[in-house]
Fold this protein.
Amino acid sequence: MQTCLFGPRESKKAMLYSDIGRLNCNVSYTTFATPVRGQGSDHKEFSSMLHKALEGAIILETFPKTTVDVFALVLESGGSDLPVVISCASLALADAGIMMYDLVTSVSVSGLGKNLVIDPILEEESYQDGSLMLTCMPSRYEVTQLTITGEWSTPKINEGMQICLDACSKLAVVMRACLKGPDSTLEE
């Protein structure tokens, strides 16, 4: 996956003054990203969900009258694409120095019968009874997005959410280590 970030830059809608900045997100797939050629060229729903996941973490007040554009291009789809896109975009924003309350991590779980599978591959997604995707700011223990498809019992939702929250916390440690540099893993 490739993530590009542009901004903050002057908003095209600069005539309308705003005390807060704007975030634009676009998720697209290469024509060869999925097993079925040309299946995933553009995902407006994924773009909207990426925006929703990130907007609460970015301190938009720090860049009034400007826009930050996040473009994510999926080069190869292996399953659990949206959580990967969200986590990578968050990492790109932090690396670019965009002020954020916390990193945003995302993990998905698929229900396969009585089993829960974390970050399912494409084949597992095709057999799933339902899926649960959780996006959060782990240091704040704050969920920014929760998406559930299929039929889930309340205990299974609770179990799936706990699995995702634990995985998001672990992912945040790895993401922070990447931001600090290669020597940072030796200190921990």
Observations:
- Confidence is low (pLDDT under 50) at residues 184-188.
- The chain has five helices and seven strands.
- The radius of gyration is 17 Å.
